[in-house]
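Re-run requested by the PI after the first attempt was lost when the workstation crashed. Everything re-entered from the original request form. Ligand of interest: alpha-D-galactopyranose.
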Amino acid sequence: MASPAAFLKDGFREKYGDAAAPRLVRAPGRVNVIGEHTDYNLGFVLPVALQMACYIAVAPSLDGRLRVWSENVRQSREWAVEDLGNLEPAGEWSDYVAGVARELVRAGREVRPSNLFVWSTVPVGSGLSSSAALEVATAMALLDKSAGLSKLDVARLCQRAETDFVGLPCGIMDQYISVFGEDGCAVRIDCRSLEHRAVRLPAGASLVAVNSMVKHELGGSAYRDRVRECHEAVDAIRARLPEVASLRDVSVAQLEACADLMPQLVYRRARHVVTENARVEEFMTASAANDLKRMGEILVASHRSLQYDYEVSCPELDFLVDRAIEMDGVYGARMTGGGFGGCTVNLVRPDAVEPFRWGIARIYRGRGQGYVCSPSAGAGEIS
Ligand code: GLA
């Protein structure tokens, strides 16, 4: 297949009949290794930026409009640039573009009339953050280098597009890793300080994402419920520990000592978050010690916590995890991303990767495509 750059240039020329060379940008999707539903609780996450990415070719338009063509859905949308500050969501793919454009205007940035040609290799609805990739790629396309926004500003602005425009009260993980991904490394992010550190995972294991090919409708509303339940837990804990500002501040022992202050369901939600933060740190320690067996066990413990305490898994994800961990060369597996479908992430011995991919696809009735995840760099221009 042609390179992404050649594909984008040809597509752009065909779509817009513009012979001028467009600028090309790329923003990756992600797979989260561990630290699930901890980001909006200001805790720790350990995602990897993928080679699968959203690409945009962009050039000025001459008619005062911002126009976007999605090569994936084969649809186009457009807005007059003077209207961008007042856009409302339409409940479809273009909201990620419109939301970023609106946030840029609201942040006092000039959005110039432009033609965008969008093409993404991140499978939509797979829990690999195709939406964050589109948001970050849009921001890169609409900002020129002289805009003076820091990388962190870009990640935060894209998160606002999702929370304030699209309406999902997400944390910052997906946009952050799309911006700050590191070639060859996972990235451990502290979602309170917004600092990160690159983590090279042991060479003796590969990450394989397996797509369950389901996306249950429950996702959005359940996500909101979880965010609310976490706030409820914090409010309850503060009655005894007023210094607590988020679940990030709570140890397992403190949570246990406060269990009587909240309903059982809220306690279980909080228990997931508090133990998951601890698991991120444990996973890092095991990784530094090259202890693949322990890393695998921690992944499975994360899955069980998401399955039983946080209740964001689903039968398909549980099935894929349960079958995977019985297979040769699989150290551990868990659901990854928001849940209710999407992907599992599997830690697999490199020589077992191919048999694992075939094996899991066969067990999952020929579906369950496996993607080998090689950590890639974050968003940037390509040529
Ligand atoms: C979604 C959200 C992220 C994060 C994950 C769960 O991907 O966009 O901010 O909360 O779910 O870890």
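Saved to the shared folder this time. The chain has eleven helices and twelve strands.
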